[in-house]
Amino acid sequence: MGQPLDGVDLDDPCALLKALKAARLRLATGALTVSVKSGDEEVSFSKADPTRLDRAIAEAERACHIASGQAPQRRRFLTAGFLR
User: Fold this and answer.
1) 83, burial (CB in 10 Å: exposed 0-12, middle 13-18, buried 19+)
2) pTM (2 d.p.)
3) How far is Cα 42 from Cα 38, in angstroms, rounded to an integer?
4) Could you tell me the maximum CA-CA distance found in the chain, to the nearest angstrom?
5) What is the sign, positive or negative, of the torsion defined by CA atoms of 56, 57, 59, 64?
6) Per-residue pLDDT, 72
């Protein structure tokens, strides 16, 4: 089985988003490493660093929304504490 990003147009954020989500699914179901090669560069995602993959998914999701003419989703953070 090929790597999830093989043949993906990296200039199409929606296609990239779909491929990155497929990579996350492969990692979650036991595939240990997913590598992406583009020209001379190669990036590997592994179970040891799912945060990096999630960050790439979030970036592609934002770019896909913008490319589709939608407003990017805003992230909200809840902090504990009180203002006096």
Assistant:
1) exposed
2) 0.58
3) 6
4) 58
5) positive
6) 72
CA distance 69 to 84: 41
Note whether 43 and 36 are within 8 A (CB).
yes
pLDDT in tens, 69-82: 887 776 666 566 65
pLDDT in tens, 8-58: 888 888 988 998 888 888 777 766 577 777 778 888 776 557 788 888 889
Residues pairing with 55 in the sheet? none
CB count within 10 Å of CB 5 equals 20
Task: Yes or no: say if 2 and 19 are a contact pair by the CB < 8 Å rule.
Answer: no
Angle between helices 13-28 and 50-67 (to 10 degrees): 150
Close Cβ partners of 73 (under 8 Å, ≥ 6 residues apart) = 61, 62, 65
The dihedrals phi and psi of 37, each to the nearest 5 degrees, come to -120, 130
